[in-house]
Specification:
Distance between the termini: 38 Å
Strand order of the largest sheet: 1-2-3-4-7-6-5
Number of strands: 14
Shape: globular
Radius of gyration: 27 Å
Strand content: 15-25%
């Protein structure tokens, strides 16, 4: 399973597999070239016409994917049409086709809340995620129960366990609470034991090679009152170190001739990870020049320990690999910067101060750079900001409000870096700043400034912030059709189709013959299942402009 680097939350794996997809009732030969937990790269080999927004039926044998998928982009390819597809519905798959390390990191970075269930045979384990953090786990296996673990540790006897289980069932009480009430363990011992139990259930997932898993994005059950702060990086590192099959590890590792290097991405570098002795020894040997075979040749480590340690470091993404001949940008940080876990006594004040002003600073200000900064200066500033505000650098903080502020600050900082590092996006952002500057002294100009800012957010995929800005625009001036249209467009991007239809309808009332508004409203009607209304909109557009691409596409979707 070869890994492709990707900017998305969920890592892609390369695998070429022929399969047949279906658009409506039309089948077509296709080939998978890469896949991830939330999407696919596909080459369309047949002659059917596929466009962005089309929904395809996917039935792929390996990796086993049976789902609907939306076309997000398309482009020409030597042997056919290349498609980027986002899968629709729960994220699921076979354990053999994905790595838990990549799944956990993806859920963390996309800040998902919900339940990850994984099973093999009759065993089912559940991991609870809250805004990307693992906070709890459960298992249906008797051996994973808290009482059984305490018996194995010698904290209680088998007789104690059987007695307390019966008592807890009759009183509809948790076994841990029953043990405390009977004086078998202290509240502090219970808390420590629950944490060990939860971590053990998660760590055992890494030993699985076959089975299934599925993530459901859903509010967490309110009955679960136990919330633990579990480090994703630590759990992945320790989970990989549980693997004792050297053939499996060697099969997952890249070539022994490839060179391990520090990741160039602060998202990967600044994590809460406590390395064991083997980890520190291997990490100290990383010089960005020596191949894996030399790095693991330490006489003080046996081969299994050395190989699984470097595999663990690659899995948590502290390290990446390159070919000997290729170059990679190395970060301007020390290994001490990366591994330092000492609590910063000033961090709370720093967070509160930055949280009050980070948005008003703008992208240049939050990075502390001038508007003529070069790319190396932008990247250096981003690394410095990551050292201070990366949430995982301060995982020890138990105040949820501070953690949330850290996440918001760093998310904005990351947006600043990605925008200013891209010449096209930077030019667009600079233009928006100029519009703001020119109209800032005019009350009449305020809606225009906010409208342009909202358009920028909409183009860059930040739909909720765009919706909020367009709402402010409407508060300032609700007599302009364009204001209602863009508000509706932001709502539609979030799947709020009923509200989007109302907003676009108001735009049409103000500008009745606007082809764009009519066509977009027709597409929203399709999503609402109102085919007749959609057809009426598209017919109106085509009377004005017979070649309107969006209206033609909408008509084709209705006829299917």
């Amino acid at each position: 399973m070869t890994v492709l680097e990707d900017v998305r939350s969920f890592r892609r794996y390369s695998r070429e597999v022929p399969f047949a997809l279906t658009l409506g009732s039309m089948p077509c030969e296709a080939k998978v070239v890469d896949y991830s937990l939330d999407g696919l790269g596909v080459i369309l080999l047949g002659g059917i016409r596929v466009e962005r927004g089309d929904v395809l039926t996917l039935d792929i044998p390996s990796p086993r994917i049976e789902a609907k998928g939306e076309v997000m982009w398309s482009g020409s390819h030597g042997s056919g049409l290349r498609l980027g597809i986002r899968t629709i519905g729960p994220m699921k798959g076979a354990i053999r086709d994905f790595r838990f390390a990549d799944t956990f990191i993806g859920l963390q970075r996309s800040r998902k809340t919900g339940l990850l269930k994984a099973g093999a045979g009759d065993a089912v384990k559940t991991v609870y995620f809250d805004k990307g953090d693992m906070i709890f786990s459960a298992s249906n296996r008797d051996e994973d129960r808290l009482g059984r673990m305490l018996v194995r540790q010698g904290k209680i006897t088998e007789a104690d366990y059987e007695s307390v289980v019966a008592e807890a069932k009759s009183a509809d009480q948790r076994i841990g609470k029953a043990l405390v009430s009977r004086g078998r363990i202290t509240p502090q011992e219970l808390w420590k034991a629950v944490r060990q139990q939860v971590e053990e259930i998660i760590l055992r997932l890494f030993e699985l090679q076959d089975g299934w898993f599925e993530f459901s994005e859903t509010p967490l059950p309110t009955k679960e009152v136990i919330t633990l702060n579990l480090s994703t990086g630590n759990l992945i590192y320790c989970g990989i170190k549980r693997i004792n099959d050297i053939k499996r590890i060697l099969g997952e590792l890249p070539s022994m001739e490839s060179v391990p290097c520090l990741s160039p991405d602060p998202l990967d570098l600044f994590q809460d990870i406590k390395l064991d002795d083997a980890g520190e020894k291997i990490f100290s040997r990383i010089d960005n020049r020596s191949p894996i075979k030399e790095v693991v040749s330490d006489e003080g480590l046996d081969k299994l320990e050395a190989y699984r340690t470097i595999y663990a470091l690659l899995s948590v993404r502290l390290l990446v690999t390159r070919d000997k001949e290729s170059a990679i940008e190395t970060p301007d940080v020390t290994k001490e910067d990366i591994l330092r876990t000492k609590a910063d006594p000033k961090i709370r004040d720093m967070v509160e101060d930055m949280f009050q002003k980070y948005e008003s600073l703008g992208y240049y200000g939050v990075l502390g750079i001038k508007n003529f900064a070069t790319y190396p200066e932008i990247k250096r500033a981003y690394f410095e900001a990551a050292k201070r505000f990366h949430p995982d650098k301060h995982f020890y903080i138990d105040d949820d409000s501070v953690k949330d502020k850290l996440s918001r600050i760093f998310s904005y900082t990351y947006e600043a870096y990605t925008t200013l590092s891209d010449p096209g996006k930077r030019e667009e952002y600079d233009g928006m700043i100029e519009v703001r500057r020119m109209t800032s002294t005019s009350l009449q100009g305020k809606p225009r400034v906010k409208l342009e800012e909202g358009k920028f957010l909409l183009r860059t995929g930040k739909y909720r912030p765009a919706e909020m800005l367009f709402a402010e625009v409407l508060d300032l001036n609700s007599t302009i059709a364009e204001h209602h249209y863009y508000y509706g467009a932001a709502l539609a991007k979030q799947g709020k189709f009923k509200s989007a239809a109302n907003a676009m309808g108001r735009a049409l009332n103000l500008d009745p013959f606007n082809e764009q508004y009519m066509a977009e409203l027709g597409m929203v009607y399709i999503e609402l299942g109102l085919a007749t209304r959609a057809g009426s909109m598209f017919s109106g557009v085509l009377k004005l402009s017979p070649d309107n691409a969006l209206a033609l596409k909408g008509m084709a979707r209705i006829k299917k």
